[in-house]
TrEMBL record:
The keyword Kinase does not apply. It comes from Breznakibacter xylanolyticus. The keyword Nuclease does not apply. NCBIfam families: PRK05218.1. Belongs to the heat shock protein 90 family. SUPFAM superfamilies: ATPase domain of HSP90 chaperone/DNA topoisomerase II/histidine kinase, Ribosomal protein S5 domain 2-like. Pfam families: HATPase_c_3, HSP90. GO terms for molecular function: ATP binding; ATP hydrolysis activity; ATP-dependent protein folding chaperone; unfolded protein binding. PROSITE patterns: HSP90 (PS00298). InterPro entries: HATPase_C_sf (IPR036890), HATPase_dom (IPR003594), Heat_shock_protein_90_CS (IPR019805), Hsp90_fam (IPR001404), Hsp90_N (IPR020575), Ribosomal_Su5_D2-typ_SF (IPR020568). Residues 24-176 form the Histidine kinase/HSP90-like ATPase domain. Residues 582-646 form a coiled coil. Keywords: ATP-binding, Chaperone, Coiled coil, Cytoplasm, Nucleotide-binding, Stress response. This is Chaperone protein HtpG.
């Protein structure tokens, strides 16, 4: 029997493994089963080239759990090891600068294991003692047993073993007893070893007999050795792809379609990516792509490894060029991974374009489910955005779909304004904005539906990409101003009348809350509504983006909602209000206005006297008189507005007109709605 020290240049390798790899301790099973699979595949390769003359026989890797003994055994019938090979591969961890290395990587389990080939030593994360019983396939080889209790000391001795291959026996320590539960080992095998290319048996299959579950003699094979992505697309049909998707994501809806990747240059990559029916909650959908290296599971946390928008896809990626055991930060900076990421983006874009060209009708039918994915891609990946110009669609209120170029051609004749800017009109709530949509379509305008979760951001993106274009929501202004041209309707109200009528209508506007109304007067024509409420495009869009993003945008979220209350001075009912207000208030208002003119004239004279003088050169008497004049003007205006406000606040016609406008915008609720109904009955 040979005794010795494991050849490390420091004695603290095991405490490091125990302590700092603890957070990733479940990967021990992946490492040991993967090693067993590698040993089996190597033997198969040697057999195929004639270097192994014996019988391959059953190459199944077996995982055995003995709860009473407190052990887990991983057995294979692969190439096995000689005593010299154990000494070389197990005992000599002769990496240089071990102390520096351990200090640098002590908090990163995957970096330690993967960077230095320490997969086997991950077994000490969960074990108080590890044994290796192995017999090499080489002719005349002797079986040996290696044993180590988690210190640098080991023993190596000959042992009886009839069959070639290796048994790794883990004596599980007290802190990791959960790994002696069958359900936990089943979970880990399913997670990490589900698609390994050599059969893995864990226990026996069971069947229901005489009212109870009994074990059979048949091995329970836990993996699929020839998973769908390793097969040729020509040998597969739609049912195969759907079935595989269901096995990956039980209880999920069938996907829209898939992309089968099979690349061998400039790197190796296989896989199948699925377009799921994406719901509105993006976060729930992320991290459904499973990353493999030669059919060994690596991670499903692919953000930063693949482009952001591809995290919405589901499926499997497998590449030997993706390192198996390194940290995510290493993966994210690895040049091969970046090339793979870029290539997948291209393949996804190519596949979408192919489907669009091949069967546009079917593509349009899937668009509402695809839209979020494609918009997300265009917003976050410039290269994808360029490619997507060919197959991204816009949908109008009639349910018709257009490419960007098609839609531009459709609207340019009728929706180009006086400044030669193309105006894209849109609605985000067809029911709530129905009256505005109706007004726009009556003028021959086309209106898009932009009601998706990302549409506010996407509109900003398109405005940056499209030349001389802007997007305007249909309720952001009166229809005559949506696509501004030279106006045919001239205002007939004087400035003084506008000021007076603003005070009249202000008296009836809702007060309080986080909503502001700004009254203005327009000659929209006698056929248009008497009052129209619109919301300014820029501020509304900023508030919507603030609701989604927060952060620096939260400033806009705190601001009140601002609406324009546009009074149509050409409407007969508004004309009646103007006339009634003049009859009721003109005598008092004109008297005040006469006094105002006199005081304002004096203010002009005083300000003229200040021209060209510094503040300290202006006599105090002038300053005092100016302050007094300003005070008088404010008082006179307050009296004028008070007289007009008194008229306005009790006027049922004004109340009715404003409430009708609020109602058409779904802004009349609670007590105000109840009063409106009662008033309507009275007026009828």
């Amino acid at each position: 029997m040979q005794k010795g020290h494991i050849g490390v240049t420091t004695e603290n390798i095991f405490p490091i493994i125990k302590k700092y790899l603890y957070s990733d301790h479940e990967i021990f099973l992946r490492e040991l089963v993967s090693n067993a699979v590698d040993a089996s595949q190597k033997l198969r390769t040697l057999f195929s080239v004639g270097e192994f003359k014996g019988e391959l026989g059953d190459l199944t890797v077996r995982v055995h759990l003995d709860e009473k003994a407190g052990t887990i055994t991983i057995s294979d019938r692969g190439i096995g090891m000689t005593a010299d090979e154990i000494d070389k591969y197990i005992n000599q961890l002769a990496f240089s600068g071990a102390n520096d290395f351990l200090e640098k990587y002590k908090n990163d389990a995957n970096a330690i294991i993967g960077h230095f080939g320490l997969g086997f030593y991950s077994s000490f994360m969960v074990s108080k003692k590890v044994e290796i019983h192995t017999l090499s396939f080489r002719e005349g080889a002797k079986a040996v047993k290696w044993s180590c209790d988690g210190s640098p000391e080991f023993t190596l001795q000959e042992t009886p073993k009839a069959d070639r291959g290796t048994d790794i026996i883990l004596h599980i320590d007290d802190e990791n007893k959960q790994f002696l539960q069958k359900t936990e080992i089943s979970r880990l095998l399913k997670k990490y070893c589900r698609f390994l290319p050599v059969e893995i048996a864990f226990g026996k299959k069971t069947e229901w007999k005489d009212g109870k579950s009994v074990e059979t003699d048949q091995d329970d094979i836990v993996n699929e050795t020839n998973p769908l992505w390793t097969r040729k697309p020509a040998d597969l049909n739609d049912e195969d792809y759907t079935s595989f998707y269901s096995s990956l994501y039980p209880m999920s809806e069938d996907p829209l379609f898939n992309i089968h990747l099979n690349v061998d240059y400039p790197f190796n990559l296989t896989g199948v990516l699925y377009f799921p029916k994406i719901k509105n909650n993006i976060e729930v959908q992320k991290n459904k792509i499973q990353l493999y290296c030669n059919q060994v599971y690596v991670t499903d946390s692919v953000e930063g490894i693949v482009p952001e928008f591809l995290t919405l896809l589901h499926g499997v990626l497998d590449s030997p060029d993706i390192p198996l055991n390194v940290s995510r930060s290493y993966l994210q900076s690895d040049s091969n991974v970046k090339k793979i990421s870029s290539h997948i983006t291209k393949k996804v874009a190519d596949r979408l374009e192919e489907i669009f060209k091949k069967d546009r009708k079917a593509y349009e039918e899937k668009w509402d489910n695809l839209r979020l994915f494609i918009q997300y891609g265009m917003l976050t990946d410039e290269k994808f955005a360029e490619r997507a110009q060919k197959f991204a669609l816009l949908k109008n209120i009639d349910g018709k779909y257009f490419t960007f170029e098609e839609y531009k051609e459709l609207i340019k004749a009728n929706q180009t304004d006086k400044d030669d800017t193309l105006v894209y009109l849109y609605a985000n709530d067809q029911d709530q904005q129905h009256s505005f949509i109706e007004a726009a379509t009556a003028k021959g305008y086309d209106v898009l539906v932009m009601d998706g979760q990302l549409d506010t951001h996407f509109i900003n993106h398109l405005e940056q990409k499209f030349e001389k274009s802007r997007f305007t929501r249909v309720d952001s202004d009166i229809v005559e101003k949506l696509v501004p041209r030279e106006s045919n309707h001239e205002s007939k109200l004087s400035q003084a009348q506008r000021e007076d009528m603003t005070a009249v209508f202000n008296a009836q506007l809702p007060k309080g809350g986080k909503t502001n109304f700004y009254v203005s007067f327009e000659n929209v024509g006698a056929e248009a509504a008497p009052i129209i409420i619109t919301q300014q495009e820029f501020m509304r869009r900023m508030k919507e983006m603030s609701a989604m993003q927060g952060g620096a945008m939260s400033f806009y979220g705190e601001m009140p909602d601002s609406y324009n209350l546009i009074v149509n001075e050409a409407h007969p009912l508004v004309a009646r209000v103007i006339s009634d207000a003049a009859d009721a208030c003109n005598q008092q208002v004109e008297s005040l206005r006469s006094k105002l003119q006199s005081v304002e004239k004096r203010r002009e004279e005083l300000n003229k006297g200040k021209e060209g003088k510094k503040d300290d050169e202006v006599p105090q008497a002038i300053k005092d008189e100016l302050a007094d004049v300003d005070k008088k003007i404010a008082e006179l205006n307050e009296k004028r507005e008070g007289i007009l406000g008194e008229f306005g606040k009790d006027n049922k016609l004004i109340s009715q007109l404003i409430d009708l406008a609020l109602l058409s915008n779904n802004m009349l609720k609670g007590e105000a709605l109840t009063k409106f109904v009662k008033r309507s009955i009275e007026l009828i």
